[in-house]
Amino acid sequence: MRDLRSLTLMPVRSIFSKPRYIHRVVCSTGALLCALPMALMAERFELPSQNLEVVGLLSRINVAFEDTFVALGRSNGLGYEELVAANPKIDPWVPGADVGIVLPNLYVLPDAPREGIVLNLAELRLYYYSRDENQGLSVQTYPISVGRIDADTPTGSTTVVDKAREPNWYPPDSIIAEHAENGDVLPRIVPPGPDNPLGAHALQLGIRGYLIHGTNRPAGIGMRVTHGCIRMQPDDIALLFEQVSRETPVHIVNQPYKLGWVGDNLFLEVHRAFEDDRTHVERGMTAIVELYVRKTGKRKPNVDWDLVRSVYEQAHGVPIRITDSQPRKPDARLAGWCSAKAPSDICGTY
């Protein structure tokens, strides 16, 4: 993955010519972390303590025959790849009538400053931290699309430097050439409308040429398909756009492995590392062990390392408790995940 330090930083001029959901959630009886604060609109979670590191809800619904993962993702604040990882044995295009689908709206917060926008590339997810005089700190989270293998999104810290409603799109020469190879002639300026891939809202970052924007192809959200920009659902970017101001901090990280404390229990969330992310692909469990050492410090939790390896190998993208703060029966280790009847080999193991 490229690092922001290798790219041209601000100041740059604005690229804009004229700065002009209720989720279907059913909490299973043993669902993991049901007691954590959760609002169903825009995935907003209150953070009354800096020690709160895991938020959300693991749940399960029965779908209709026509409920594709693209449609389910859009109505439940999830991306396509998230649903595929959590439901690996289900056909994402024809799930089947009355089939149980796990909704992985459960998250270990990324290891990044709790301010402004945090983008975790490996997770294909954006977090937005804001502070309210009455409610204090809270975080919202949204699925995103990021740069494909030959046009990866850079990591590092920057800010929002401009905002635009109904932006014009000025395709770079590389994209114009790419379209030309396919017999598609792109104009130098694409005005607002159904043919504009930026959608109706855009946030310009302090990295030359990079935006957080909407889309005219929402079916691609939650995939690695862009030319480097961060793409959001039209409804999601509209919500974020109204809350974010210029100079809002933006932290872009690449963390396929995350650890978070809930009381005395430690949760591990593993996403499949990008194939061109050689650091994580080649180091695998070693990277998780090093993360564990940094996370635990002087604390000595009772970790089930066999379970850690299973979670790593299967990479379902859902936080799994890997410790026991109190003795429990082995088959209760994954109470939240398996009581939701997740289609996972892990559940049949214990």
List the strand order in the largest sheet: 1-6-5-4-13-8-9-10-12
CATH architecture of the domain at 4-20 and 146-248: Beta Barrel
The whole-number mean of residue pLDDT values reads 80
CATH superfamily of the domain at 4-20 and 146-248: L,D-transpeptidase catalytic domain-like
Q: Fill in the CATH topology of the domain at 4-20 and 146-248.
A: L,D-transpeptidase catalytic domain-like
How far apart, in Å, are the first and last alpha carbons?
37 Å
Number of strands: 16
Return the CATH class of the domain at 4-20 and 146-248. Mainly Beta
Instruction: Characterize the biggest β-sheet.
Output: 9 strands, mixed
Return the string of H and E elements: EEHHEEEEEEHEEEEHEEEHHHEH
Query: Pairing-aware structural class of the strands and helices?
Result: alpha+beta
Number of helices: 8
Rg from Cα: 20 Å
> Which stretches of 5+ consecutive residues score pLDDT under 50?
1-41, 327-337, 339-350
Q: Note the beta-strand portion.
A: 25-35%
As a percent range, the share of helical residues equals 10-25%
| Spatial shape | globular
